[in-house]
Amino acid sequence: MIGGYLLKGTLNRSPTIVRSTSLLLMVESFTSLLSFGGYEFLIIFVVVALSYRYTSSRLRLPPGPTPLPILGNIHQIPVASPEEGFARWRQKYGDVIHLSILRSSLIVLNSLDSARDLLEKKSAIYSDRPRFVLLNELMGWHNASTHVRYGPRFRKHRRFIHQTFNQQAALSLRPVQEKETLNLVRGFVDTPEQFAQHIRRFAAATIMKITYGRDITSVSDEFVLLAERAGSLTVQSGTPAASLVDFFPIMKHIPTWAPLAGFKRNARVVKEAVDRMMNIPFEMVKDQMVSGTANPCLTSRLLEACGETASFEDEEDIKGVAGTMYAAAEDTTVCVLVTFVLAMVLHPQNFKKAQEEMDKVIGVNRVPSIEDRGDLPYLECVLKEVYRWNPAAPLGIPHRLMEADVYNEHYIPEGSTVVANIYAMLQECSNPRQFHPERHLKGDLIDPQELVFGFGRRRCPGRYFADTGVWLVAANLVASVNISKAKNELGEEINPEVAFTPGFIRHPKPFPCQITARA
Ligand code: HEM
User: Fold this and answer.
1) Residue range of the domain that includes 116
2) 192: domain CATH number?
3) How many Å apart are CA 225 and CA 176, to the nearest integer?
4) CA-to-CA distance for 338 and 390, rounded, in angstroms?
5) Could you tell me if 430 and 446 are in contact, meaning their C-beta atoms sit under 8 angstroms apart?
6) Is 410 among the domain residues?
7) pLDDT (tens digit, 9 = 90+) per residue, 335-389?
8) How many domains does the chain have?
9) For ligand 1, what atom is nearest to the CA of residue 324?
10) Residue of the nearest CA to atom 37 in ligand 1?
11) CB 425 within 8 Å of CB 34
């Protein structure tokens, strides 16, 4: 998260990226006293306009496109692939760009140095998340670890996650990943045309087993469907119109029967789905613990650790952590692995080189295991290039600045939403759009893994687990199957289009390919 639909959710409103200024909060409490009609928009408009005049003698902000009064740069934010648009602006405005959106500041960090200087060196003030009214307050994602606000609750979530996913603990998760890797390879061989489904099943099965002790044999499993429904409803209902509530939190008080309240009615349906996704697997584990049939898993371990004295808040936090795992892990892992397959289809010479290395090191009588990783440097370069060429979450998840800051003589206002443009940072090399694993051989380029999992105290806590899973799948595919271009009815090779879906997760668009077992 960046994961999946939670990241997508934030993406859909990322431009916004609403900041609850004290001003808007004042407006909210003031106007909530009034009955709801068309007045609120007028009041908000006037107060925002006045505040604009009042504070227009601002200190020097970082450079950025010239904003319109009140609306700011809202009309200039690239919608389809904001990461690419922001990267293009880098030449004109520099590494740190300021955009204003309805008086909120959005800071885009286009360089690794600026991301490290701010999100890491000053992580004490850059580790909050923006207030997501639609997602958290209306759609029920308020317990999600990806969105939890900085403070004691954030630390508790990180502690809970860390117990299972820290570098050392993640070693004990390998058997699940190895078993599911073999299932994935079998699926690739048996029904190669469904390779993307096999990747999805792998990602779902590993995370569901670890989180709830659940064995997943197909993506039609009840728990997967619950999570998918919550995710897809969230994305469908996160329309730009619905996202207005992020700009004007007062709108959340509109009665559901009012004509303007369609977004609230939709959000209520989403909330039901999110609650079911959080509650049903959690209650199952609790029941199994009572009957002594629970498989040890993240949820059972956290419940055990809280013991008899688990408070309502503890249970909500455990549910939130567990419920976030699928959302954060599935989409991102799928994106990386499908990108790997696409890159191998497009670049058979790289795939062949990886196979030659594999055959030399492992031979043909066994499958590769993670212990072989250090002996397969070319495969390592291929994976680094996969992470670089198409970073799964190109803008990460927005951070929020908790107090005003000054950076390179520029003023960054308190409450700014700060976005790390991971995509732009990974373009800092020659011919960046070319897939070229050899560029990592010399070791003078930054390891993309340093960036693709985000920065500072919010850095992805699932990174060790995610990277091990990605390596196992890639290594076993290299060892066991041939991947090549599909052919049309004339026997001609089909060159897949290199295109990515717009959204917070840059999924490769579906593409054909040919997969066969290695002789
Ligand atoms: C290759 C796959 C993955 C990628 C590329 C990825 C990337 C990211 C990114 C960019 C962030 C935002 C970091 C920031 O705010 O600076 C994030 C957050 C997060 N990721 Fe991952 N992730 C992946 C897999 C996973 C997995 C497998 C899990 C769970 C086991 C996970 C759990 C989380 C959680 C809980 C957060 C929120 C952390 C917080 O807000 O404190 N991710 N991830």
Assistant:
1) 74-517
2) 1.10.630.10
3) 21
4) 10
5) no
6) yes
7) 999 999 999 999 999 999 999 999 999 998 899 999 999 999 999 999 999 999 9
8) 1
9) 35
10) 146
11) no
